From TrEMBL:
GO cellular component annotations of the record: membrane
SLC26A/SulP transporter domain location: 10-385
Main location: membrane
Name of the protein this chain belongs to: SLC26A/SulP transporter domain-containing protein
InterPro entries referenced in this protein's UniProt entry, alphabetically: SLC26A/SulP_dom, SLC26A/SulP_fam
Length: 526
């Protein structure tokens, strides 16, 4: 029975896995390039995400690999630690921390992170992606001219500017790539079967490869130079693969276990990667036609093992990625087999498609990531959150500015603190209200009253004149601070001397009245 079910879904999983591979290949290369590391590192992470994480994961449709959201941490981490080898140790440690999160069943805590904080983090990542990819999108290379020199044309394919040499071919490829990425999502183009079946990143990559080949034949001076294209080392055997992995030079840097900066980067990676993974799982569950939920703690353990392996063999940090996962769902995937097939195809491409991959202009990959950044930080997101009011907009902006000014972890902490302060302010604001009708006064406790409520309570009690009637309604307060109760008890004790009639209604009394009313209604019904 299981074998029959396997063959019934294998064809759809094979198709879905192929589609995800075509989406993942340019993204793996682009994220590696944006991170300032060898393109091979991105492919290693994609392969581990497909062959390791997909097998261990409890999600049937989620696809894991290098994520654009972690580019900022990778770039800053390498700069801070001084080498990619030291950063790989942080990746390995982050995997161990993630596995620990899963063992401690910490997956449920992600739900407590406020949505504006997560959106602010993603928007900041989008802004940083756009800024960091502009040099590649322009084909910028070389140093600025010396003082007093005038910008001038440099050959047929480049223009010398105060910032360096800009490639005309790169600029044109970037503009065409962005036009494809935007047009691929419009209704006008979605009517065509080709657009519906060919992923936009693949169309961009095909454009880049075609442009490189065409210009190489017709106008070699305009063709993207080797330094402006992907540079994947040719691999003819598994021995060559092992040799390619040696560039990571990982082993000796276990000595940096005592370096606090390594642990700081590892903790940042573990937290952000876990958040992104759990958000992706939630999004996949929403678009899954069968609404199948994945155990978050099992996913954290699977991601932890994946990052342990990626850090050990020279790969970028891994998360569950919504772009590849949504492509998997829309391609009709039925099981984890599609993600595994995508990993197998990535591994095969390392050996069989190196010469083709090396024709891809870096401008294409930069355009893909710029478009990703625009979707993360689109202006409509800012407008939509601003319309919701100060409560969500303030932590959103605080997180965004915090990430841009410091780093991801500090930005997230600042956003959460802002949310907590706003929540405290909302709970402490006007907990007590006084209403008057003639000589009758109603003092209402609208919510729990802390010691801060003592000041407004004292102010309201001073307004009660002699001979008045006061009703104190505390039925909606689960908690009333001792100082507040003491102040109220003192007023009640002194009230008879001033001719004030006081009635205090507590929550217990309200519950008792409700119970008596329910009992009477039940007796009448019987």
């Amino acid at each position: 029975m299981n074998l029959r079910a396997f063959f019934s879904t294998f064809q759809r999983d094979l198709l879905a896995g192929t589609v995800v591979f075509l989406v993942a290949l340019p993204l793996c290369l682009g994220i590696a390039n944006a991170s300032g590391v060898e393109p091979f590192a991105g492919l290693v992470s994609g392969i581990v995400g497909g062959l390791v994480v997909a097998v261990l994961s409890g999600s049937r449709l989620s696809v894991s690999g290098p994520a654009a959201g972690l580019v900022v941490i990778v770039v800053d981490g390498i700069a801070q630690l001084g080498s990619f080898s030291a950063f790989l140790l942080a990746v390995l440690l982050s995997g161990a921390i993630q596995f620990g999160f899963g063992m401690l069943k910490a997956g449920r805590f992600a739900a407590y992170v406020p949505s504006p904080v997560i959106k602010g983090m993603l928007a900041a990542i989008g802004v940083l992606l756009i800024v960091k990819q502009f040099p590649l999108a322009l084909g910028l290379s070389g140093a600025a001219p010396t003082a007093g020199a005038q910008p001038m044309a440099q050959g047929a394919g480049a223009i010398l500017t105060p910032f360096g040499s800009i490639s005309l071919a790169a600029c044109v490829i970037t503009l065409l790539s962005l036009a494809i990425m935007v047009g691929w999502e419009t209704r006008a183009l979605r009517r065509f079967a080709l657009v519906r079946h060919v992923p936009a990143p693949l169309a961009v990559v095909l454009l880049g490869i075609g442009t490189t080949l065409l210009l190489s034949v017709l106008a070699p001076s305009l063709a993207p130079a080797a330094e402006h294209r992907v540079a994947l080392p040719p691999l003819e055997s598994f021995a060559a693969l092992q040799l390619a992995l040696e560039w990571a030079d990982f082993g000796p840097h276990f000595a940096q276990l005592v370096n606090p900066d390594v642990w700081r980067v590892a903790i940042t990676l573990a937290i952000v990667a876990s958040l992104e993974t759990l958000l992706s799982l939630e999004a996949v569950e929403q678009i899954d036609p069968e609404r199948r939920a994945a155990p978050p703690d099992r996913e954290l353990k699977a991601q932890g093992v994946g990052n342990l392996i990626a850090g050990a063999i020279g790969g970028l940090p891994i998360t569950s990625v919504i772009v590849r996962s949504s492509a998997n769902v829309h391609a009709g995937a039925q099981s984890r087999l599609s993600a595994i097939i995508h990993g197998v195809l990535l591994l095969v491409s390392v050996f069989a498609l190196t010469s083709v991959i090396n024709l891809i202009p870096l401008a294409c990959l930069a355009a893909i990531l710029i478009f990703t950044g625009l979707k993360l930080a689109k202006p409509s997101l800012f407008v939509a959150i601003a319309k919701q009011g100060v409560a969500p907009f303030a932590p959103f902006i605080v997180t965004l500015v915090g990430v841009l000014a410091t780093d991801l972890l500090i930005g997230i902490v600042l956003g959460i603190l802002c949310s907590v302060l706003l929540a405290l302010y909302a709970n402490l604001r006007s907990p007590i209200v006084l209403a008057q009708h003639g000589d009758h006064y109603l003092l209402s406790f609208r919510k729990d009253v802390s010691f801060l409520g003592k000041v407004p309570l004292k102010h309201y009690l001073q307004q009660i004149p002699d001979g008045a009637t006061l009703i104190v309604d505390a039925t909606r307060a689960d908690f009333v601070d001792h100082d507040v109760r003491e102040l109220l008890d003192t007023f009640v004790a002194d009230a008879p001397g001033r001719g004030i009639a006081v009635e205090v209604r507590h929550q217990v009394q309200a519950q008792a009245r409700a119970a008596r009313g329910w009992s009477m209604r039940r007796t009448a019904a019987e």
